[in-house]
């Protein structure tokens, strides 16, 4: 037979073959009456739906002659070939639910004074007066048991574990008591690196921020694991407390580390609306010695932008976990709006303040060359040699990044904020004195299951009297896929048009841009977007806002979000439409 679940408390059995001879425990119906529905005592009547009549059997005699053997009286337990199946409905009344009448939830022993455990006891579900939900009860019980182990009560056990149900009164009494035993302390830590030893144990020990003999807490081990993972030296990290080997109440901790591959090689194709098609090659040595130093080399070679970078990193643990970094970069950009080339040396110290906030303090040495004009020769109109400007700057900077997101790849509830402050003095390694502040904020919010609202804002301001001496890399620009769509990269802002029609973006002292974007997804992968961008890069105190509007296609691909946008600038753009392609995480 087939069983179907219908309304709460009702189970319908469909397609049961009822034999011609009655079963021993039932009473046959009178001639001409339908079989009665079978119901449990004291239950309400329910409607029974008859199934369609089965067509006559194929071997029945349709001429009215003597029936064939197939139409004779069947053996007990069999159905006549030409009779219809009968639907039998069984109705079950759930009755009044069982509620919690009394609840005794407690921890005896040292854990009784632990305020965090007492908070968990106060949140135990189901509470008195609530319907007794067994799954909720088990989850609450498991949470407290797990919390006892996390806080070092390794000897904890149940003193009482009972739920008494009085069916006549529809009541349940919960009696659940743990004995915590003593709270253990952090003991000595042993480190095993297998199959080979790659990093000094003393370096790993510097990541341990607790003192031996302090209270045990699983959170300390979790933070230690995260710090090891950020170093990117190991493919496997196993941190195991060993309470069975505790001595004088101190639990030893065994750390087993499996080294990762020493070298990472990268190669691929790239495309950017602003940079054009290109290739990328890189190699990173995760560890070049047992002190954990790292080395990175990378080349990005695109049609309009070329970058070569060498970076050397040393792990840092004083104050904040992070890195000391020394890097050198050669950068060359030849676009429709700028011609620049620079060499930059940077020394920095980065650190993670907490799970959401990272900070970097750095010192920059910059040498940059750039050109803005190509004038026609007075003789025959041919272009004269390009005249370049040069600048040298030495300046410190401080940068902070805060990200609070449910999912960095595709956030639906997230806030991101980046702030940067930098400045230099004329005569102290810089060709001009300046102080510059810049910030960007991003906000993501899911609206229903398939919609998302995105807000973005950017603001920057420069205090200087020597803007003409500052190179493009220290000025602000606007326009492009991460600024104001509808305009080309660096199109918005002060420009210089030569006699040849060549337009150069000069860059500006200040910038102010913003975005409002709405996305709707048709399914788990594909969606569409509509957006408005506006802003300006400007030298005085009043921006001349340039606005762009557009639509886009969204694809949540296996390699990350893909965004394809088409936008139109409303303020005299150089092109009626701009197309942008962007691949990568939102945050």
Automatic annotation (TrEMBL):
Residues 8-70 have a biased composition (Low complexity). Its main location: membrane. Residues 104-173 form the POTRA domain. It is found in: Membrane. Residues 1-86 are annotated as: Disordered. Coiled coil: none annotated. GO terms for cellular component: cell outer membrane; TAM protein secretion complex. The keyword Transmembrane applies. Keywords: Cell outer membrane, Membrane, Signal, Transmembrane, Transmembrane beta strand. The keyword Zinc does not apply. GO terms for biological process: protein secretion. InterPro entries: Bac_surfAg_D15 (IPR000184), BamA/TamA_POTRA (IPR010827), D15-like (IPR039910). Residues 405-584 form the Bacterial surface antigen (D15) domain. This is Outer membrane protein assembly factor. The lineage of its organism: Bacteria, Pseudomonadati, Pseudomonadota, Gammaproteobacteria, Lysobacterales.
């Amino acid at each position: 037979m087939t069983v179907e679940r219908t309304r709460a408390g009702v189970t319908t059995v469909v397609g049961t073959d009822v034999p011609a001879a009655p079963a021993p425990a039932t009473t046959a119906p009178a001639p001409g009456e339908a079989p009665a529905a079978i119901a449990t005592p004291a239950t309400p009547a329910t409607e029974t739906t008859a199934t369609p009549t089965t067509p006559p059997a194929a071997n029945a005699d349709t001429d009215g002659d003597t029936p064939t053997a197939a139409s004779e009286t069947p053996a007990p337990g069999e159905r006549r070939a030409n009779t219809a199946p009968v639907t039998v409905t069984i109705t079950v009344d759930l009755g009044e639910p069982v509620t919690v009448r009394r609840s005794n939830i407690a921890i005896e022993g040292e854990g009784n004074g632990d305020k965090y455990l007492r908070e968990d006891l106060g949140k135990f579900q189901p509470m008195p007066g609530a319907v007794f939900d067994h799954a909720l009860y088990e989850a609450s019980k498991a949470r407290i048991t797990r919390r006892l182990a996390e806080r070092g009560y390794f000897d904890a056990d149940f003193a009482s574990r009972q739920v008494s149900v009085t069916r006549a009164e529809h009541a349940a009494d919960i009696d659940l008591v743990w004995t915590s035993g003593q709270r253990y302390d952090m003991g000595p830590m042993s480190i095993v690196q297998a199959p080979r030893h790659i990093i000094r144990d003393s370096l790993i020990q510097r990541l341990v921020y607790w003192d031996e003999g302090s209270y045990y807490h699983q959170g300390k081990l979790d933070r230690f694991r995260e710090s090891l993972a950020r170093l990117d030296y190991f493919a496997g990290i196993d941190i195991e407390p060993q309470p069975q080997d505790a001595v004088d109440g101190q639990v030893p901790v065994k750390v087993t580390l499996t080294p990762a591959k020493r070298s990472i090689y990268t190669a691929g194709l790239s495309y950017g609306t602003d940079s054009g098609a290109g290739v990328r090659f890189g190699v990173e040595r995760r560890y070049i010695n047992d002190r954990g130093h790292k080395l990175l080399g990378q080349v990005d070679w695109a049609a309009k932008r070329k970058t070569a970078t060498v970076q050397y990193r040393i792990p840092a643990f004083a104050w904040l976990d992070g890195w000391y970094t020394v890097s050198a970069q050669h950068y060359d950009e030849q676009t429709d709006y700028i011609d620049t080339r620079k060499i930059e040396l940077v020394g920095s110290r980065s650190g993670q303040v907490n799970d959401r906030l990272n900070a970097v303090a750095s010192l920059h040495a910059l040498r940059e060359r750039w050109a803005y004009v190509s004038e026609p020769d007075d003789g025959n109109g041919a272009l004269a040699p390009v005249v370049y400007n040069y600048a040298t700057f030495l300046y410190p900077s401080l940068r902070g990044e805060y990200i609070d997101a449910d999912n960095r790849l595709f956030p639906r509830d997230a806030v991101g904020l980046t702030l940067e402050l930098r400045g230099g003095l004329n005569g102290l390694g810089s060709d001009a004195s300046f102080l510059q502040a810049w910030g960007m904020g991003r906000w993501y919010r899911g609206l229903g299951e398939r919609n998302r609202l995105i807000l973005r804002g950017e603001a920057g301001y420069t205090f200087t009297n020597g803007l003409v001496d500052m190179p493009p890399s220290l000025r602000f620009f606007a326009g492009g896929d991460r600024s104001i769509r509808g305009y080309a990269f660096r199109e918005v802002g002060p420009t210089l048009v030569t006699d040849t029609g060549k337009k150069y973006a000069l860059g500006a002292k200040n910038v102010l841009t913003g975005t409002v974007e709405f996305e709707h997804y048709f399914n788990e992968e594909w969606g569409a977007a509509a957006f408005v961008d506006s802003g300006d890069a400007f030298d005085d105190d009043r921006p001349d806002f340039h606005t762009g509007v557009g639509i886009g296609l969204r694809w949540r691909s296996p390699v990350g979000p893909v965004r394809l946008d088409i936008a139109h600038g409303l303020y005299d753009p150089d092109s009626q439409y701009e197309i942008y392609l962007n691949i990568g995480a939102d945050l």
